[in-house]
Specification:
The structure holds two protein chains of two kinds. By secondary structure, chain A is mainly α. Chain A has nine helices and no strands. The radius of gyration of chain A is 17 Å and the shape is globular. The N and C termini of chain A lie far apart (46 Å). The chains are: A mainly alpha, B alpha+beta.
C-alpha cells in the first residue's frame, strides 16, 4: 500500500484538488480513496490501469464531497472566479501574457470541463480510459472536451486573448 | 481538406478534429495518430488549431505541476484508518494456499504493509549490492546524468526543472548532447516518454527560465518542454 500510495498520491491529490478546489478536502479525499483501494483490492481485475481505477474512485469521492456543499455557494464561487479574470486590474496587465491568461481561464472552467481537460492533458488518459473514469460514452468524451476547449477560448477572448481559434 | 475547414467554420467538429487533444498528449493508437498526422499535413486550419491545443496542453501540465503535494497528515490519516480495519479474510489472498492465507490474515494491515515495504527495501538493497560489485569491476569510471527524485521544495531557491518529451526520432547520442549543452540532468522519468530535467545547479530568474524553455522548445529533438517543479 505504501508503494502504491507513494507512486500515485500526488496525482490523485492534484486531480481531487482541481475538482473540489479546497486543499483540506482534497487531502481528506486521498485518504478515503486509498482506504477504499485497501478495502477493494480483491475486486481490482486488472482490466484497466491502476491509475485509471484510482482516478475513477477519486472522481466519485470528489463529487460526493461537492454535493455536500450548497449549490448556491458553488455557483457564487464559479461566478466569482470568472468575474475575477475580467475585473481584476492585474489581469489587464497580464493580458499580453497568454500563458498566464490560459492558466487563469483553465481554473475558471466548470468542474465538468476541468476534469476532462485534466484527464486528457495532465493525466494523459486515452478516450477509452476517460470514458471509464467519467462513466460516459467515448463519443461524449470527445465532444465534451471539444466544448470545454470552446469555453476556454470564450473565456480567453473575454480576457482579451485571441488565439485564432475557433 | 475543404470538408474539414468547412466543419470548423460551422463549429461542427469533425472526427479528426475531435482527436487532436489526444494526439497532442500522445495517447492515440498508432493508426489514429497516423490519420491525424496525414490530416494535419493536408489542412493548414487544422494545423493551426493543433498549435493552439499544444499550448493548452503545456499550460494544463504547468498549472497542475504548481498544485504541490498533500501533507503527511493525509498519509497518517490513511494508515490510522487501515490500522482500525478488521483483519483480512483469507479469501483476499485467493491464489495462495489456505495455510499461507491463514498466516497473512492473522497479521494486522499495518504489519502487512510494512512487511511489503521491508521486502521491497531488501530487493533494492540486493540490487544495490549487485550494482556496486558490477561497478567496482568496471575498468573506467562514469557518472550518470540522473539526480535524486526527492521532493523539490518550492520554498527554497533551486535550479529550474522542466518536463520534456523528446521526438521519436531522437537518438540517445542526441539526448546526451542536449543534456551536456544545457548542463541538464534527468531527475525523473514520467509516463508517456516524458522526462523531468534539472538545469544547472543554480536558481534562475523568471525571464531566464522563460528564455530557457523557449530555447529548449526550439530544439529539433524536443517535442514538448514545460516548466515544472
Amino acid at each position: 500500500m505504501q508503494v502504491l500510495y507513494g507512486r500515485h498520491h500526488v496525482r490523485v491529490f492534484r486531480f481531487g484538488l482541481r475538482l473540489v478546489r479546497d486543499e483540506q478536502i482534497a487531502e481528506d479525499l486521498i485518504s478515503e480513496v486509498f482506504l477504499d483501494v485497501w478495502r477493494q483490492a480483491g475486486k481490482f481485475e486488472g482490466r484497466s490501469a491502476v491509475s485509471t481505477w484510482l482516478l475513477a474512485i477519486t472522481r466519485f469521492k470528489a463529487l460526493s464531497a461537492l454535493r455536500k456543499r450548497k449549490d448556491a455557494e458553488l455557483n457564487d464561487e464559479a461566478a466569482n472566479a470568472i468575474e475575477d479574470t475580467s475585473d481584476d486590474p492585474e489581469v489587464a496587465a497580464t493580458k499580453k501574457d497568454t500563458s498566464e491568461a490560459l492558466r487563469k481561464c483553465l481554473t475558471a472552467l466548470s468542474a465538468e470541463h476541468r476534469e476532462i481537460v485534466d484527464l486528457v492533458y495532465y493525466h494523459e488518459k486515452s478516450v477509452e480510459e476517460v470514458a471509464e473514469i467519467v462513466g460516459i460514452p467515448e463519443n461524449t468524451v470527445k465532444t465534451r472536451l471539444f466544448y470545454a476547449r470552446k469555453k476556454l477560448a470564450e473565456l480567453l477572448k473575454a480576457a482579451g486573448v485571441e488565439r485564432g481559434w475557433p | 481538406m475543404m470538408a474539414l475547414s468547412k466543419q470548423m467554420l460551422e463549429q461542427e467538429p469533425g472526427d479528426i478534429e475531435l482527436l487532436l487533444p489526444w494526439h497532442a498528449a500522445g495517447t492515440l493508437s498508432a493508426r489514429d495518430a497516423r490519420r491525424v498526422e496525414e490530416a494535419l499535413a493536408r489542412d493548414p486550419e487544422l494545423a493551426k488549431q493543433f498549435a493552439v491545443i499544444r499550448e493548452e496542453y503545456a499550460e494544463t501540465i504547468s498549472l497542475n505541476e504548481t498544485l504541490g503535494a498533500p501533507s503527511s497528515r493525509a498519509m497518517q490519516k490513511l494508515f490510522a484508518a487501515i490500522d482500525a480495519e478488521p483483519a483480512r479474510q483469507p479469501s483476499f489472498l485467493g491464489g495462495l494456499s489456505s495455510r499461507f492465507a491463514g498466516f497473512f490474515a492473522s497479521l494486522s494491515p499495518r504489519t502487512l504493509a510494512w512487511s511489503a515495504t521491508l521486502g521491497a527495501i531488501a530487493l533494492v538493497l540486493q540490487a544495490g549490492v549487485i550494482g556496486a560489485v558490477l561497478v567496482k569491476n568496471q575498468p573506467g569510471t562514469f557518472q550518470t546524468a540522473s539526480l535524486s527524485t526527492g521532493d523539490h521544495d518550492p520554498g527554497v531557491a533551486t535550479p529550474p526543472r522542466a518536463l520534456v518529451r523528446f521526438t521519436p526520432e531522437a537518438k540517445v547520442a542526441d539526448i546526451t548532447a542536449l543534456l551536456d549543452t544545457y548542463q541538464a540532468s534527468i531527475v525523473d522519468s514520467a509516463r508517456e516518454g516524458m522526462f523531468r530535467l534539472q538545469f544547472g545547479s543554480k536558481p534562475m530568474s523568471k525571464d531566464e527560465v522563460a528564455s530557457l524553455m523557449q530555447k529548449l522548445q526550439g530544439e529539433k529533438i524536443v517535442s514538448l518542454a514545460v516548466q515544472a517543479q
